[in-house]
Design brief:
Strand content: 15-25%
Strand order of the largest sheet: 3-2-1-4-13-14-15-16
Number of strands: 16
Number of domains: 2
Number of helices: 16
Shape: globular
CATH superfamily of the largest domain: Metal-dependent hydrolases
CATH topology of the largest domain: TIM Barrel
Bound molecules: zinc ion
Radius of gyration: 21 Å
Length: 448
């Protein structure tokens, strides 16, 4: 009896089609996933897996798949959603976003924004986020409270930030963060340098060395706009990718956000150095930054995952929308309807993202031994009936609001779209009150 109790799974997710996202693994109709503690202990046909468990989740005939991995975002920026739209990146950043952040992003505001972003992420089926913001210890605490898996850095930039007066201060904070969270089950500490145009060579190297010392991800925005690339070519005679490669800061631990304006030579360099690319199609289109050469990056073997970017430039954290847009965008650009097909795009949402963040040993697929980050999506709404091919459905028809249940690290965090880890209604009211305050403060400061 004692043995049976010890072996009994804590959680069983059953009555759904399982998409493991393992390479070459077909959808498993009438499948089930069993979880013990934080780990997946069985995946397969329900008849083979099904045993009693402490908690049973009925997927209701829907999809059971790995949680989505958002490889690039700025979570607390949900509070600036829609504050300044329809502007080019440089003007948007320098005249609106940075002044607004300076005016309002206190530690407490970042905590609230991060929690609210965690709620939005969970309800969109996102179980792992790679943040890039300020007040990292507060961000990490908020994400642990919400139960989300996350990569969390403190951003280094060559001017004072809302949390650090100098880059040296930010680097010291990153060191403390790396030490404190080195063995945390949910938080992977990281080092971030904002971009090659906003962080000098000396600090870029220091940041990359710190990431190497702790063997953690090194996050940076790269080649997001034509302006960035043209100014590097003019001033240094090198593209941003070649400049960073020459500095020796690119490695398999690098998460390069955007890479919109990269040459064939740059793509080969990214592939050779094992750099992961976080592609953000919605944000890149909205800011008219351009379109990343995603099919070419994938063809050269570059690791790619999707990112939403911050909600000030997306304007949501709906990662599925980025994947769905990408599947359509490249067909339109190339005139080739076979470009970026659903079976290529869908795994990038979880397996691809996990690869980019260096977390593929733990997450990204539904496989025995991996951490239990699992979502269930409903298939009963009109837009989901009939569903002949689950992969096609996910990329061409599904909606984030179809996400019904979410499990992270073996814990049920969303049940029938109800967030269990934080009080959504109380948070909403706090965010609404803060939004009124932000509007007043930003208008006063002339940021709008
Ligand atoms: Zn960004």
């Amino acid at each position: 009896m004692a043995t049976e109790t010890r072996l009994m799974p804590d959680l069983l997710i059953t009555n759904g089609t399982v998409l493991t996202m393992e390479p070459g693994s077909p959808p498993l109709p009438q499948g089930a996933v069993a979880v013990k503690g934080n780990t997946i202990v069985a995946v397969g046909p329900a008849a083979e897996v099904e045993v009693s468990a402490t908690t049973v989740i009925d997927a209701g005939g829907g999809l059971i798949l790995p949680g989505l991995v958002n490889t690039h975002t700025h979570l607390a920026m949900v509070l600036l959603r829609g504050l300044a739209d329809d502007l080019p990146l440089k003007e948007w950043l320098e005249h609106h976003i940075w002044p607004a952040e300076k005016a309002v992003m206190s530690q407490e505001v970042v905590r609230l924004g991060t929690l609210w972003a965690a709620v939005e992420s969970l309800k969109a089926g996102v179980t792992c986020v790679c943040d890039m913001y300020f007040h990292a210890p507060t961000v990490a605490e908020a994400l642990v409270e919400a139960g989300l898996r996350a990569v969390v850095p403190e951003s280094v930039i060559d001017f004072p930030t809302p949390s650090c007066p100098t880059p040296e201060h930010a680097l010291q904070r990153q060191r403390e963060l790396c030490w404190e969270y080195r063995q945390h089950p949910l938080i992977t500490p990281a080092v971030a340098a904002h971009a090659p145009y906003s962080v000098g060579a000396k600090n870029l190297v220091k940041a990359a060395e710190l990431a190497e010392e702790f063997d953690v991800p090194f996050l940076i925005h790269v080649a997001e706009t034509r302006w960035e690339v043209e100014s590097f070519l003019k001033e240094k005679g090198l593209s941003p990718v070649q400049y960073l490669a020459n500095l020796g800061v690119l490695s398999p631990r690098t998460v390069a956000a955007h890479c919109v304006h990269v040459s064939q030579e740059d793509i080969a360099t990214l592939a050779d150095l094992g750099v992961g690319v976080a592609t953000n199609p919605v944000s890149n289109l909205k800011l008219a930054s351009g379109v990343a050469p995603l099919p070419q990056l994938l063809a050269q073997g570059v690791k790619v995952g999707f990112g939403t970017d911050g909600a000030a430039s997306n304007n949501t954290l709906d990662l599925l929308r980025d994947a769905q847009l990408a599947a359509l965008l490249y067909k339109g650009i190339t005139g080739d309807p076979t470009c970026m097909p659903a079976p290529v795009v869908a795994p990038l949402l979880s397996r691809g993202g996990a690869d980019v963040l260096g977390l593929s040993a733990h997450i990204g697929t539904l496989s025995v031994g991996k951490r239990a980050d699992i979502i269930c999506m409903d298939l009963t709404e009109p837009h989901a009936v009939p569903t002949f091919d689950p992969m096609s459905h996910l990329i061409y028809a599904a909606r984030a609001s179809d996400v019904r249940h979410v499990v992270v690290e073996g814990k049920l965090l969303l049940r029938n779209r109800e967030v269990l880890s934080v009080d959504e209604a109380a948070l909403r009211s706090e965010v609404q009150q803060l939004a009124a305050h932000i509007r007043k403060k930003v208008q006063k400061g002339g940021a709008l």
